Amino acid sequence: MPRPLWAGAISFGLVTIPVKVVSATEDHAVSFHQYHREDMGRIRTRKVCELDGEVLSQEEIGKGYEVAKDRTVPVTDEELDRMPLPTAKAIEIVAFVEADSVDPVRISDSYYLAVDGQVAAKPYTLLRKALERSDKVAVAKFAWHNRERLGLLRVREDAIVLHSMRWPDEIRSPESLAPRETELDEDEIERAVQLTDSMALDGISGFRDRYRDALEEMLAAKSEGRTVPAAPGGEEEPGKVMDLMAALNASVKAAKETRGEDATVHEMTPGKSRARKKSAPATKKAATKTGKKTAAKKQTSGKTAAKKRTAS
């Protein structure tokens, strides 16, 4: 099991569950070092005091908060430890909500909660079962790196997962980023929905980081003195403007071919539905005119018959 990052307890009403926090994710990104191009020497980052120019060790560096220009208030670790933080060693559950009510934008890092000792097994299982049966997630408060945070507890397989969350005032409003009202043809929307159906999957477990695979292959080739593999061509030019309906038609066809389905796409062109809507009033007018002519003929024939009876 990975090294625990934090140890404390889940506070569930009057129930206490000793737990250890373990990272739920791993970083597989390829990292690079900075070096001197001329002699391949490593470039190191040094912490230098801007007043005397001395290179400082970690033991000589403290925390401070700049309250105004050229005025910094020093803060010690002891002062931070004495802060009245009730969630310093507890993940305090404050509410249970529907999972769909939580905006995914607010979710940050993810951690597994592991039982800390056999005494925690029963209350841990109790909370997990309660979450599963209620079909809800728990909202909690906890302390992390000298600040109180909001968290979300949910069940993943047989473990309880803690997602750290951002506070509501930390989420920027997307209002200014939304595009202005744009006219869309109904056929374009229908084709876009068809594309989502063609690309639907039961899960996303099969995806891989292809960039990292290519990067590792390139580094292995360079270290072994082999030729670096060339990147495949045929990429679409960025920013190129395409006909929207043509792009949708081509996308649906490509998605069906990928899934091994019948790739026949009945081409849809914008404006068909509008054309049908415009032709409807014309048909109604023609029917009205025909009806008037028929009524006029009946009226004329009726008058002629009346005259004949009068003459006789």
Features:
312 residues; alpha+beta; two-stranded antiparallel ribbon
Task: Give an account of the 3D structure.
The longest helix has 40 residues. The protein has six helices and nine strands; from the N terminus they run ββββαββαβββαααα. It is 32% helix and 21% strand. By secondary structure, the chain is α+β, with helices and mostly antiparallel strands. A seven-stranded mixed barrel has the order 1-2-6-9-8-7-5. A two-stranded antiparallel sheet has the order 3-4. The chain starts with 5 loop residues before the first strand and ends with a helix. β1 and β2 form a beta hairpin.
Question: Can I get a quick summary?
Answer:
With 312 residues, the chain is α+β, with helices and mostly antiparallel strands.
Write the layout of secondary structure elements.
Blueprint lengths: L5 E7 L2 E9 L39 E6 L2 E5 L1 H5 L8 E8 L9 E9 L5 H14 L2 E7 L4 E9 L2 E7 L20 H13 L11 H14 L20 H15 L13 H40 L1
Parallel strand pairs: 1-5
Antiparallel strand pairs: 1-2, 2-6, 3-4, 5-7, 6-9, 7-8, 8-9
Helix pairs in contact: 3-5
